[in-house]
Design goal:
mainly alpha
Length: 70
């Protein structure tokens, strides 16, 4: 079964609602558009936009721990 892509007006409206819910931050318009598009299509891309890749998850914590050990 093929999924249909929502029209731009639908995505724009959803992105605007997400932007408002997030406190209207500046400079993240592409993120909100992609999140709205993923939510509108039921795509799993939403997860990839909000979580680091598995091989990079926790890198910051490991680096901070090593710095504290020195």
């Amino acid at each position: 079964m093929a999924s249909t892509r929502p029209d731009d007006a639908t995505i724009r409206d959803r992105a605007y609602r997400i932007w408002e819910e997030e406190g209207r931050p500046e400079g993240r318009d592409t993120e909100f558009w992609m999140r709205a598009e993923a939510a509108s299509t039921g795509s799993s891309q939403l997860k990839t936009l909000t979580e680091p890749p598995p091989d990079q998850a926790g890198i910051g914590e490991t680096a901070r721990a090593k710095t504290k050990e020195k």
